[in-house]
Amino acid sequence: MSKTRGNPRRVLLGLGLLLLAAGAAAGMLLGGGETPAVVQKAEDMPPLDTAPLIRLHVTTVDGTESTLTGADLEGLGLWTTDTRTYWPDDEGPFSGPRLRDVLAATGLDGAEAVRLTAADDYSIVIPRADWLDWPVLLATRDSGKAIPVEDKGPLRVIYPRDLDPALDERVYGLRSAWMVERIAPAPADAVTR
Fold this sequence. Notes:
Blueprint: H1 8-29, E1 39-41, E2 55-59, E3 65-69, H2 70-74, E4 79-81, E5 94-96, H3 99-105, E6 113-118, E7 123-127, H4 128-133, E8 137-139, E9 141-142, E10 145-146, E11 156-158, H5 170-175, E12 180-186
Parallel strand pairs: 2-12
Antiparallel strand pairs: 1-4, 2-3, 4-5, 5-9, 6-7, 6-12, 8-11, 9-10
């Protein structure tokens, strides 16, 4: 028998942590321990001066191409998140339409996955589960202002990292593209892992 197996301090510490976790879960289920809202509908934001400069080139499932401006994107509804990103000193709050709303407006919401391509040709593929499971943003604003190219703008993917511990995984950092210029359907087997 090892010395640590019957150590009363470790047993009590383990039980205490288990009870703490169970109590927190019960409080959340019963509504007593609400978690902070990570993504909220944005209200009363003035139009961006630079909205005409923002362009998202979209290729639909049937190959049709179109371009959305910043005004088009923000017209889909603005959401705000004040969440950690995957880079140090990368503060928000970030605002923009939800990716699911952009995809619905462009007919890509039925795609298995979508490929986003940045101005520097960085390309990532996001699976449908991401935009269905989480309120992923296609951010047009940082702290209410247009995001300059020098600060990863004018369009960037923001996962609500503080919403779910699963979003701490490295893959979501890889999928958090910035300087996004293009979006197109992609097969599920091309998903960035």
